[in-house]
Write a structure and sequence with these properties.
With about 160 residues, the chain is mainly alpha-helical. The chain contains five helices and two strands; from the N terminus they run αααββαα.
Length: about 160
């Protein structure tokens, strides 16, 4: 970001220090100080961005050169072009619904439906049947109490410390 100068960088570092202090001490006054400073920093960043844009416009108007401004505008675009128009039976289709139907028909044509009457059965070792499991509240509480809260979360992304509350 061309408007992000050293002053804003120092303010961002100060905001991070205030956050770390509030997190470490857990005092309400430190959290309020952090939130207030964060709001002021966002205002300063917005103000600096608009000053940069205004300066760019002014220089463009003074010199008769709008190229830097339009370069900035193109860089700020965030929309995607999506799927380009599709040619189907000699007609170019641009609407999303028709393009989705064309792609769906294409995918359906290249995949086959398996014949379920002729399935292969794999033979292997015969394991004994597992009896029904009994799950009790005491057993679940015992398993949860043995969890190590300092370990990382599993594939479900749930931290162990949430199970203890």
């Amino acid at each position: 970001m061309p408007w992000f100068n050293n002053t804003l960088k120092r303010l961002c570092n100060k905001k991070q220090r205030l956050f770390n202090k509030a997190k470490r001490t857990r005092k309400a006054q430190h959290w309020e100080q952090y939130k207030s400073f964060k709001k002021d920093l966002l205002k300063a960043i917005r103000r600096q961005r608009w000053c940069y844009i205004n300066d760019m416009l002014q220089v463009g108007l003074d010199q008769g050169d709008s190229k830097p401004f339009w370069r900035y505008v193109r860089a700020q675009r965030q929309d995607t072009s999506g799927i380009s128009p599709l040619l189907h039976q000699g007609v170019l289709h641009t609407d999303s619904l028709r393009k989705a139907k064309i792609l769906n028909n294409q995918f359906m044509s290249v995949f086959t439906v398996e014949d379920s009457s002729n399935t292969t059965y794999l033979y292997g070792p015969d394991y004994p049947h597992i009896e029904d499991l009994t799950i009790s509240r005491e057993g679940v509480e015992k398993c949860l109490s043995n969890l190590n809260i300092t370990k990382a979360s599993g594939p479900d992304s749930i931290l162990c410390r949430f199970f203890l509350k």
